[in-house]
Amino acid sequence: SILKIPQLQSGYSILNGFFLYDYVEIHDGNSESADLLGKHCSNIAPAPIISSGPSLHIKFVSDYAHQGAGFSLRYEIFKTGSDCSRNFTSPSGLIESPGFPDKYPHNLECSFIIIVPSSMDVSLTFLTFDLENDPLPGGEGDCKYDWLEVWDGLPGVGPLIGRYCGTRVPPEIQSSTGILSLSFHTDMAVAKDGFSARYNMTHKEVSETFHCSNPFGLESGKITDDQIIASSSFYDGHWLPRQARLNYNDNAWTPSEDSNREYIQVDLHTLKVLTGIATQGAISKETQKTYYVTTFKLEVSTNGEDWMVYRHGKNHKIFHANADATEVVLNRIPQPVLARFVRIRPQTWKNGIALRFELYGCQITDAPCSELQGMLSGLLPDSQISASSMRDIHGSMGAARLVASRSGWFPNPTQPIAGEEWLQVDLGVPKTVRGIITQGARGLEGSTSAENRAFVRKYKLAHSLTGKDWTYITDSKTGLAKIFEGNSNYDTPELRRFDEIVAQYIRVFPERWSPAGIGMRMEVLGCDLPGENTHTHTHTHTHTHTHTHIFMIRESVAKVDNLYSKNLNPSYCRSDNNIIRLMSSNCSKV
């Protein structure tokens, strides 16, 4: 709704920023507890006030003394746009903004979710793109009017790949989780032509002998210029980050000064396995002088904020690079690392820093039976994540999601005992399980203090089909419960594979941990049992005020039949916390 107050008169006094006598308060909701949009007095009418939801709360206060003429107002109620959310399950299709190719409507909140079957990949290619542009780009407020967000998973749950606006066409985007989601938001002002994008699913070719050494796309251009940034660039504009592509024919990247504080960075968009880096120097086109990096350090991150230097043992790994300006030198990474963001930080150089490079590796899911089972994407609801205890009793078990969570799971005891605390995932149905990814925890309530940066160094794994009878994964040599190597810091994920097991429940038992205690996020890797066919259904709803997304979650039809009444329209309905199976006003358990 829109509220306009053309006249306002009151007896007033303002002291140190406080309104003392007569005033009008306007709250963005249906009570005084809602966010305060404004507090007004005097005879100057405020600008039009726009709510973010269906209600505005207006409070008028006057004292016993002076009287004024009061106020009058006019309100307008407008529709928040059509029900524009859709799900896509066909092998290929077109996703367009509402009304395309005409201008999109105002006040939209749309979710488009592409659901990918097992053993398939999906890519999204934008054909046209024209959204209201942010006139002040380059800061945290980028795209604050109309925007399109792309998520590697369910909206608001999986990692955000990017937020886009303006007329620059986003790059081709792929999902690593089996769910690719688009969230489209428009405000009440400027409307543009919108967007059109085509998605395509392809069968994934997997082999037990696959090689995790594919170029990620710096040389080919698959990685776009927007995905490459640097700490600085040389002042003349001829040595930019986009020129840091392997075998690029026009100079390279050079920072503003030759210093080991400088770096160049690539956003891979999704979590990937990094196995190698090829580097190359450059010959200046202007002076014919040679420049190249002789050694460098590697830094990795899952979120672009928390950076970890790659280590060899306890020390930072120094990679030996080039001996001339043109030769390509390939460095294999001794222990492949999981990362979305990659930084190269030159340590030594000849004549000056100049760098062209390529990154090599693969998707986590390129290995056989290594599909992410829904922790990262949000496909598994919070109700299927449990633990022995939780320090933050008001927190959500969603904190235990790999990468997607900003914090992590912390057990309640400040001095836990090895083997007594556990973190558990219910996969919904029995699955073939072949691996696990663990990650440390950033801290409670977004804390960044060092004492809250916790991780698990070693752990045991148990599995079950019933949730009652548990079996440890054993060491083939000793026959005892296997001790898995965990994490060495709170951000970099660690992947551990093992011989396949059939399980519905997976439990992690921490055995050793960091000085800050136990902190963990995780994902399970596996695949459907042969001949099994689980149905995937997703429905989305966006509440305008809280911007909360509500989803159906994948489970087998048989399991749903056992839990919930079929005498409903729609036939399946479920409610636990903020996750429901289908929108229905008469949800009832059997």
Automatic annotation (TrEMBL):
Family matches, as InterPro entries: CUB_dom, FA58C, Galactose-bd-like_sf, Neuropilin_MCO_CoagFactor, Sperma_CUB_dom_sf
Domain F5/8 type C: from-to ranges: 212-362, 369-527
Keyword RNA-binding: no
Location(s) in or outside the cell: Membrane
Membrane topology: Single-pass type I membrane protein
A GO term for molecular function: heparin binding
Keyword terms of this UniProt record: Developmental protein, Differentiation, Disulfide bond, Glycoprotein, Heparin-binding, Membrane, Neurogenesis, Receptor, Repeat, Signal, Transmembrane, Transmembrane helix
SMART domains: CUB, FA58C
Single GO cellular component term: axon
CUB domain residues: 1-78, 84-202
SUPFAM superfamilies: Galactose-binding domain-like, Spermadhesin, CUB domain
Chief site of localization: membrane
One Pfam family recorded for the sequence: CUB
GO biological process: axon guidance
Family recorded in the similarity comment: Belongs to the neuropilin family.
Protein name: Uncharacterized protein
Lineage start: Eukaryota, Metazoa, Chordata, Craniata, Vertebrata
